[in-house]
Amino acid sequence: MASRVTFIGAGNMAGAIIGGMIDSGFAPDAITATSPSDEMLAPLRDRLGIRTETDNDAAVEQADVVVLAVKPQIMREVCEKMRSAIQARRPLIISVAAGLPAETLEHWLGGELAVVRCMPNTPSLVGAGASGLYANTRVEASQRELATELMEAVGLVEWVDDEALLEAVTAVSGSAPAYFFLMFEAMEEAGASLGLSADTARRLAMQTAYGAAKMAMQSDKTPAELKRNVMSPGGTTERAIEHLEGAGLRRIVQDAMNACAHRASEMADELGKR
Ligand SMILES: NC(=O)C1=CN([C@@H]2O[C@H](COP(=O)(O)OP(=O)(O)OC[C@H]3O[C@@H](n4cnc5c(N)ncnc54)[C@H](OP(=O)(O)O)[C@@H]3O)[C@@H](O)[C@H]2O)C=CC1
Ligand SMILES: O=C(O)[C@@H]1CCC=N1
Asked: What is the pLDDT along the chain (274 residues), one digit of tens a residue?
């Protein structure tokens, strides 16, 4: 029988993963999502045909996998309330919460549980997600495969052996869609200031990013080589790249990603106390 997956929390991230799972062929009636208010759940139920529940305990009763997808700040309360129901069932736990260590989550849920920590990103919604996964020692090979299957349904999966590396994953992919969206905003504004309509500039910028990513993924050339191929000597691209390098783009990116990874570690200290 196919695995039954319950999402605790039905917000941006859960919605993105559920949408991607269904597009890739998961049966909607094997998926349950919970939220305190039915208002959040109705669109998921109506649009995707999944099961919904406002009672977390009831939703984990039949689950083989429980995906924790609430904000880190309320995770402790949510886990502790579900403890008895989780211990009665002992499903595979997959947490997508930033920061919170597997050991802490396991403790909040009553202990002795197989826990996979996953750092996904929102492009999961369109099947183009990128997730970093870490398994605690209780996770069996079949559960690892199940977690891989679930997250591969919505994109690329990379396992890490050291849990601390999920902080780097957060910086490289979990938070990173926002960096590219910021770039789109900046390019749209700059394109508009050069005379294009904002809509035209946005469409051109997005298609270019899509094309560049697709090309880089399909090519055996490095990004540096692909970049050089666009830069005719004495031409326009060279001028733009000189400007970006001169203004310290690499340092800015490094600083931003350091800040992101550092925040993930701070969150573990602030919220992960047992
Ligand atoms: N957004 C992103 O890009 C990424 C997010 N994450 C992680 O995903 C998790 C969720 O983030 P995100 O989806 O953005 O947050 P959202 O606020 O969009 O979703 C959280 C959901 O949890 C619901 N909720 C609140 N209390 C409960 C409860 N007691 N039981 C069940 N559901 C509850 C909320 O309902 P209500 O609104 O009614 O309170 C809301 O629907 C976080 O831990 C975050 O770190 C990880 C990677 C990327
Ligand atoms: O900003 C956040 O905390 C979450 C985790 C990664 C992406 N969004």
From this structure: 579 999 999 999 999 899 989 988 999 999 999 999 999 899 999 999 999 999 999 999 999 999 999 999 999 999 999 999 999 999 999 999 998 999 999 999 999 999 999 999 999 989 999 999 999 999 999 999 999 999 999 999 999 999 999 999 999 999 999 999 999 999 999 999 999 999 999 999 999 999 999 999 999 999 999 999 999 999 999 999 999 999 999 999 999 999 999 999 998 888 866 5
Q: Could you identify the atom of ligand 1 that is nearest to the CA of residue 81?
A: 29
Instruction: Enter the ipTM.
Output: 0.97
C-beta 102 within 6 A of ligand 1: no
Q: 71 labelled as ligand-binding? A: yes
In a domain, 271, yes or no: no
Domain of residue 255: give its range. 176-264
In a domain, 273, yes or no: no
Using a 6 Å CB cutoff, which residues line ligand 2?
Answer: 98, 170, 174-175
Q: Determine if ligand 1 sits within 6 Å of the CB of residue 81.
A: no
Query: Which ligand is nearest the CA of 18, by number?
Result: 1
Residue 121 marked as a ligand binder: no
Q: Are residues 14 and 138 in the same domain?
A: yes
CA of 191 to the centre of ligand 1 (A): 35
Total domain count for the chain?
Answer: 2
Distance 238 CA to ligand 2 centre (A): 34
DSSP string, the chain: -PPPEEEE--SHHHHHHHHHHHHTT--GGGEEEE-SSHHHHHHHHHHH--EEES-HHHHHTT-SEEEE-S-HHHHHHHHHHHHHHHHHH-PEEEE--SS--HHHHHHHTTS---EEEEE--GGGGGT-EEEEEEE-TT--HHHHHHHHHHHHTTEEEEE-SSTTHHHHHIIIIISHHHHHHHHHHHHHHHHHHTT--HHHHHHHHHHHHHHHHHHHHH-SS-HHHHHHHH--TTSHHHHHHHHHHHTTHHHHHHHHHHHHHHHHHHHHHHH---
* Residue 35 assigned as binding residue: yes
Pair (89, 182) in one structural domain: no
